[in-house]
């Protein structure tokens, strides 16, 4: 800390993307600790704040009446001094396909520590590259957060894809008094393998059916007795103005493990290939019997660091996103994460959380 008592976070560390900024600012708001983030997104081809990050930053400024320096496009340094978390209805209009879920990723942990329930309406992209698809947030993040005693209600009013965006979602968050420690260590037995294959705009429903059939076929090939139920959906014009396609698959187990895998259609969409890609990714998780998938890993770190008690997750090889999230959480909260490799190559990530209590309820 310097004379102004800022915790300084190096945004170029390891992954060097937007996630270090998001986690640092969220923890700053929750803990009431001023933070300075330098070298923001230094490892990206377009370093500095992009629109998505700027919208998220300004949203957290509004939620906590923060003093902010450096909140402009392409800024590489931000100083953020939060005030108190204020429950309210907040709206963010990105005017682009900026990821709605990444803006939620920043605000959700903060609103969990508000005094009363809050609503956050965001317009932008619901299913865009390098971000959680909105279905993943509903079907994978939500059940994983329940292990920590947290939850939310997320409604998609309209889907939005790259490049036009124009999706619109509503997130309702009930605050918690504290976060419980998450124990995600036992795999249990598979209860269901399911998913949704969607397309929208001018794209024919056949694309969704191709994704469905190839994904189901592949699961059947790997585990002949395992049922796999994927719903093909063509979104109506009201539900999505423009073209887009993708698939999300999940596996649910008797130990309340929920793993997800997804893919998004690009220019020339081959539904068969997308279905195959996603079922293979999910099949890999099932074979490894991990309890947390590769994307959920980094998203749970912030909750583990704040919980009252010791959280543990059994997962695969750690991603750079996860190592970066651990680094930020350790600096912001002072907790220490332990990472151990199991004989079969799985990783056990654990930490004695800070035990942060919500003083506003
Ligand atoms: N397919 C996916 N499913 C679920 N989560 C995803 C998926 N792709 C990316 N994510 C999550 O989205 C976040 C992306 O963080 P990252 O810092 O790379 O993105 P960003 O803020 O857009 O920054 P940048 O533009 O700097 O890459 C991570 O939490 C990652 O786990």
Give a description of the structure.
Keywords: ATP-binding, Ligase, Nucleotide-binding. 32% of the residues lie in helices and 26% in strands. With 361 residues, the chain is of the alpha/beta class. Among the domains are: 87-176, RNA 3'-terminal phosphate cyclase domain (UDP-n-acetylglucosamine1-carboxyvinyl-transferase, Chain, Alpha-beta prism), CATH 3.65.10; 190-288, RNA 3'-terminal phosphate cyclase, insert domain (Dihydrodipicolinate Reductase, domain 2), CATH 3.30.360. A 4-stranded mixed beta sheet has the order 1-2-4-3. Strands 5-6-8-7 form a 4-stranded mixed beta sheet, covered by helices on one side. Helix 5 links the parallel strand 10 (190-200) and strand 11 (228-234). Helix 1 packs parallel to helix 3 and helix 5 runs parallel beside helix 6 (271-288). The protein starts with 6 loop residues before the first strand and ends in a 9-residue tail after the last strand. The model has no long low-confidence stretch (mean pLDDT 97). Bound molecules: adenosine-5'-triphosphate. The site of adenosine-5'-triphosphate has 16 residues, from helix 1 and helix 7.
